[in-house]
């Protein structure tokens, strides 16, 4: 017996004009746990089904006024009832047209007198099919919605890609072949779409640029992305543009690809350089005269200052000196970049340069309680001695600034194959891994307060890099954060005589 509180297996509507049949079916199904509604007329059956659609309809074929075929027809024509499975009921002696029943939309038929198992089996089959169909329809709808959402997202991406003012390119990781580029990329590069698609970055750009690009791709493969890496791009007309390159690894048609978003900063850099050099030129004269006035004050020729006055004067002198250093460094760098300063190479003994650098920095090292160790050998090099000395003193000065008292700094030379390598090693605070490259850029410091606290300008390493690269060498740093750093620089040994090894 079905308990009152149990949920019915399904809601069945029985339409039959014979009350005995209705009673029989109703009892049979209710006992098995179905909820049964019964009506004796086709028209009231249709109305009932429209008002509260049942899960299945058992429909008598032979009824006065409206026969079963017609009822089924009308049910199938109505949006609210068209999906309800209809099983026809026919009597053994009746003329039953099966084809007509299926054409009207019926799914099956049962014959009176009923056999309980048969009725239940057919009912179950069609209820299950009906449920599966409903599920399928729901999933179809969901799929269609997802497809529509994806299409909308793709369209949005395609629009953003097409109209983005930043040049964007997609290329395969393995071969570096361009798959797609946007209009801004074509404008920036000067190439047409046909000239770009299917070709690689190496084919259309400088070898050196593609070396940096390959490094960026390797980094992106490790970290998933790279942001704002400076990059020199050679356009079709031969102009070199300065680009900030951001790369993300994506998958396209099962292949690993790069999504490169570029920012052309050529003009910004030009204006920045122009502005800095203009301001520096304008600042130099008044600052030199300020320094002269401060010197005059401290000489005592204009009267004696109180102790407090001398302290204030010393602060003013220190800061003016720092400003003059900054302006001089900016102008030095600008002249080097524009080629206004040329190197004056002569043959000189590297060990003498190293000794000179140590002597220059000895007072600063003594003040900081830091020991300078020199390990060099006599190697004749063809360099601008003043500029190499400038580089070495800058590296030593940094090493002293960022070392604790009682620590050591080593200044070494090594001769390797066709170049010599100079090392400046300290036991100081070290440099974090993500800053090892950037500190060679203009005004880049590990800590924003370094230049103020340690009296630097943030330009020293940029100048060193220019000097070394002008000599055809390289400069880089390796460091264990918290345990010290080693700055390396190489100078080519071509046409040099090794005096002693
Ligand atoms: P600055 O005039 O600030 O020293 P540099 O270009 O010479 O400018 O150096 C840039 C920054 O690199 C420094 O401000 C500091 O943060 C970091 N740096 C340079 N050398 C060292 C070192 N030996 N140890 C730790 N940090 C260093």
Low-confidence stretches: 496-501
Structural class: alpha/beta
Widest beta sheet: strand line-up: 2-1-3-4-5
Number of strands: 17
> How would you sum up the major sheet?
5 strands, parallel
CA-based gyration radius: 44 Å
Percent in strands: 15-25%
Indicate the overall shape: rod-shaped
Bound molecules: adenosine-5'-diphosphate
CATH homology group of the largest domain: Histidine kinase-like ATPase, C-terminal domain
SS summary, helix count: 15
The CATH class label of the largest domain is: Alpha Beta
* Percent in helix: 40-55%
Protein name: histidine kinase
GO molecular function: phosphorelay sensor kinase activity
EC number: 2.7.13.3
Keywords: Coiled coil, Kinase, Membrane, Phosphoprotein, Transferase, Two-component regulatory system
């Amino acid at each position: 017996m079905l308990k009152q509180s149990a949920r019915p297996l399904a809601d069945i509507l029985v339409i039959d004009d014979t009350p005995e049949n209705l009673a029989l079916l109703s009892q049979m199904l209710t006992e098995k746990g179905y909820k049964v509604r019964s009506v004796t007329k086709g028209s009231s059956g249709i109305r009932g089904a429209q008002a509260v659609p049942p899960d299945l309809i058992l429909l008598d074929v032979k009824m006065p006024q409206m026969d079963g075929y017609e009822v089924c027809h009308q049910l199938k024509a109505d949006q609210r009832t068209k999906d309800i499975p209809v099983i026809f009921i026919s009597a053994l002696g009746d003329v039953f047209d099966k084809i007509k029943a299926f054409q009207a939309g019926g799914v099956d038929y049962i014959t009176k007198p009923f056999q309980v198992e048969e009725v239940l089996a057919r009912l179950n089959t069609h209820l299950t099919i009906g449920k599966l169909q409903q599920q399928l329809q729901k999933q179809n709808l969901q799929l269609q919605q997802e497809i529509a959402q994806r299409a909308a997202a793709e369209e949005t991406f395609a629009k953003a890609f097409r109209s983005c003012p930043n040049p964007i390119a997609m290329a395969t990781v393995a071969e570096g072949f361009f798959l797609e580029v946007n209009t801004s990329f074509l404008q920036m590069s000067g190439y047409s779409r046909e000239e770009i698609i299917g070709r690689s970055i190496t084919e259309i750009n400088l070898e050196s640029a593609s070396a940096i690009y390959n490094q960026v791709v390797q980094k992106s493969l490790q970290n998933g992305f790279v942001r704002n890496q400076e990059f020199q791009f050679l356009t079709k007309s031969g102009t070199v543009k300065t680009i900030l390159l951001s790369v993300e690894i994506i998958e396209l048609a099962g292949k690993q690809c790069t999504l490169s978003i570029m920012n052309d900063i050529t003009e910004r850099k030009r204006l920045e350089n122009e502005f800095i050099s203009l301001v520096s030129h304008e600042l130099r004269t008044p600052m030199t005269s300020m320094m002269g006035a401060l010197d005059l004050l401290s000489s005592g020729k204009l009267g004696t200052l109180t102790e407090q006055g001398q302290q204030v004067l010393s602060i003013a002198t220190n800061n003016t000196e720092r400003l003059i250093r900054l302006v001089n460094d900016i102008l030095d760098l600008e002249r080097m970049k524009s080629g206004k300063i040329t190197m004056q190479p002569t043959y000189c003994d590297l060990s003498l340069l190293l000794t000179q650098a140590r002597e220059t920095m000895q007072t600063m090292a003594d003040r900081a309680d830091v020991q300078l160790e020199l390990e060099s050998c006599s190697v004749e090099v063809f360099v601008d001695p003043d500029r190499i000395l400038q580089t070495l003193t800058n590296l030593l000065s940094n090493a002293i600034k960022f070392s604790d008292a009682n620590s050591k700094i080593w200044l070494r030379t090594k001769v390797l194959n066709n170049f010599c390598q100079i090392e400046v090693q300290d036991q100081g605070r070290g440099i974090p891994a993500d800053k090892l490259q950037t500190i060679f850029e203009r005004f880049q410091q590990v800590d924003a307060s370094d230049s103020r606290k340690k009296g630097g300008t943030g330009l020293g390493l940029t100048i060193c890099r220019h000097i070394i690269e002008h000599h055809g060498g390289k400069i880089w740093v390796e460091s264990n954060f918290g345990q010290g750093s080693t700055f390396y620089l190489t100078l080519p040994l071509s046409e040099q005589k090794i005096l002693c090894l």
